Each structure stands twice: as C-alpha cells, then as structure tokens.
C-alpha cells in the first residue's frame, strides 16, 4: 500500500486505554501516511482512566505503529495534555526521534505555528480537577452507551448518531465553552504574531482563518479519535483538516504489518506509565 507523504501530521485525543478509543481507525490512518513530523498533541494515553485490565492489543498496536514510524525516519513530538499530564515531568526529554514537550513552535515556509494541547485554557482544569476527572468518566460511559446504540442502529439499517455531539450542540454552556476556548487561543496567537495556532482538548475539529483589527491568524483543532476521527495535515505550504472514512465493513487485520509477538505485556506498560 502506497503511503501519502506529508510534511506534518497532527493527531490528538486518542485516549488509549479507554473504551471509546477507536484504535483500529487511528492505526489504519497512521499506516496510510508517511510524515516527516508527527505531532501527538496530548491525551494520547489516557492515564486518568488507565486500567491495566483494559488494554487491548489494538491499543498497543497504535504505540507500536508510532515507534515503527520513528524507525522509518519520522520525527515525533509528544505534547502533553491533561489526561497524560503525568508525562509533563518528562518535558524536554529527547530520545532519538522522540521528544516530549508541553508546547511546540515550528517555522513553516516563513510562517510560525504554535502547537499545544489547550487544557491551559480550561478553567475546570485549574480550579476543579476532580470535576474534570469525573466528567471524563461520564464521557467515557456516554461513548460506550453510544457505541451500543449505534450497533443496534446499524443492524436496523439506520445511520450513526453522536450523543456527545448532540450535547455539545444543544447545551448553551457547552457552546459557550468551545467559543471561549477558540477565541482565547485566537486572541493570544494574534497578540504573539503566530500565523497558526493548533490545539486539541475540546474534541472539536476546526479550521478557521480569522482577521481582526489587531491582526490575523489561522485557528486549527485536530479533533479526536473517539467521535470525529480527524487529524491535521501540512503539505506544500497548506494545512488540511483530514476526516477518516470508516470502511462499510470491518476489515481483516491479518495483513497488518505489525508483529503481535512484539507487543509488550500490559503489566510492564502499567508499571512504566503509572509507577514512573
């Protein structure tokens, strides 16, 4: 299978280790591209909800896929988010083609891109982290219930629905939170003369070119791999918001180029992540 060559790919909010994670989809997407730079923009491994009793091989294959990309020449930047905030103690860590950081600034064809997860703008994270963690558990349950409903819906020949999207579009406070989040990122990017500001965190993919009396910038959000299955791609001086298309039927994974025998034991993963 020929891979699409990219200068940069940005993915965020994969939430490995949760029931809502669409690990097969992100693995197939990563398998289809060959970026010079891969930016993992936070909440890749959900350490908040990490459970050593739930870590399917499909989730480990995503980790293995990323390491295979590094072995093939891709530079990987892991930018920490709130769900993997434990990794912030390792900020500035470098090993081969892997670098862990809290934010990233890239010069792209004479323009500056400011990339970070975005939880720094979340007032709940600052003042009521316990409430944010409780909300994360509730969100995971909602996604699990949603998956069950969609399974029955597809069996009946009907389309998928997204409970979370309906909540976001129907609750005024949710709409205001997203609008405030985006506006804060935009205002700071214009103030600091960044041509692009790239976030994740809110699971709301976006591509907006903004011009005000103070300046202009482009706001981009890579979305997530739970509901939207989106990424950001940069090639030939242009950004694009990519939407993964799910196959009509589950595809056979027997042709996967990853070796199952190389997958580490979940207990070793648990020890390295939680006990570090």
Q: Which key terms come to mind for this protein?
A:
276 residues, alpha/beta, Purple Acid Phosphatase, chain A, domain 2, 5-stranded mixed β-sheet, 7 helices, 12 strands, 34% helix, globular
Written overview of the protein:
The structure is a single chain. With 276 residues, this protein is α/β, with parallel strands linked by helices. The protein has one domain (4-274): 4-Layer Sandwich (Purple Acid Phosphatase, chain A, domain 2). The protein contains 7 helices and 12 strands. It has helices at 23-32, 57-71, 123-127, 129-155, 163-170, 172-191, 266-274; strands at 4-11, 33-41, 75-79, 94-95, 98-101, 103-108, 111-116, 196-199, 206-212, 215-221, 230-235, 238-243. The strands form 2 sheets. Strands 4-5-3-2-1-11-12 form a 7-stranded mixed beta sheet. Strand 1, helix 1 and strand 2 form a beta-alpha-beta unit. Helix 1 packs parallel to helix 2 (57-71) and helix 5 packs across helix 6 (172-191). The radius of gyration is 18 Å and the shape is globular. It starts with a strand and ends with a helix. The relative contact order is 0.18. Mean pLDDT is 81; it is low at 124-128.
Uncertain parts: 124-128
Spatial order of strands in the largest sheet: 4-5-3-2-1-11-12
Shape: globular
Number of domains: 1
Biggest sheet details = 7 strands, mixed
CATH superfamily: Metallo-dependent phosphatases
* N-C termini distance: 38 Å
Report the count of strand segments.
Answer: 12
What proportion strand? 25-35%
């Amino acid at each position: 299978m020929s891979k699409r060559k990219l200068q940069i790919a940005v993915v965020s909010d994969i939430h490995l280790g949760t029931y809502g994670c669409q690990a097969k989809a992100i693995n197939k997407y990563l398998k289809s591209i060959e970026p010079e730079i891969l930016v993992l923009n936070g909440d890749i491994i959900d350490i908040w909800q990490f459970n050593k009793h739930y870590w399917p091989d499909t989730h480990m294959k995503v980790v293995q896929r990323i390491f295979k990309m590094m072995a093939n020449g891709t530079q990987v930047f892991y930018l920490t988010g709130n769900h993997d905030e434990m990794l912030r103690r390792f900020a500035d860590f470098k090993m081969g083609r892997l670098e862990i950081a809290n934010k990233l600034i890239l010069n792209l064809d004479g323009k500056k891109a400011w990339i970070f997860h975005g939880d720094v703008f979340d007032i709940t994270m600052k003042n009521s982290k316990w409430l944010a963690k409780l909300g994360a558990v509730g969100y995971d349950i909602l996604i699990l219930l949603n998956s069950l409903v969609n399974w029955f819906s597809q069996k009946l020949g009907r389309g998928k629905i997204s409970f979370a999207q309906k909540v976001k579009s129907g609750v005024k406070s949710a709409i205001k939170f997203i609008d405030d989040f985006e506006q804060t990122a935009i205002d700071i990017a214009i103030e600091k003369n960044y041509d692009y500001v790239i976030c994740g965190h809110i699971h709301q993919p976006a591509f907006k070119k903004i011009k005000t009396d103070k300046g202009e910038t482009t706001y981009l959000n890579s979305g997530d791999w739970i509901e939207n299955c989106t990424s950001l791609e940069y090639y030939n001086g242009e950004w694009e918001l990519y939407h993964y298309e799910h196959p009509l039927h589950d595809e056979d994974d027997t042709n996967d180029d990853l070796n199952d025998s190389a997958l580490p034991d979940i207990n070793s993963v648990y020890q390295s992540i939680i006990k570090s």
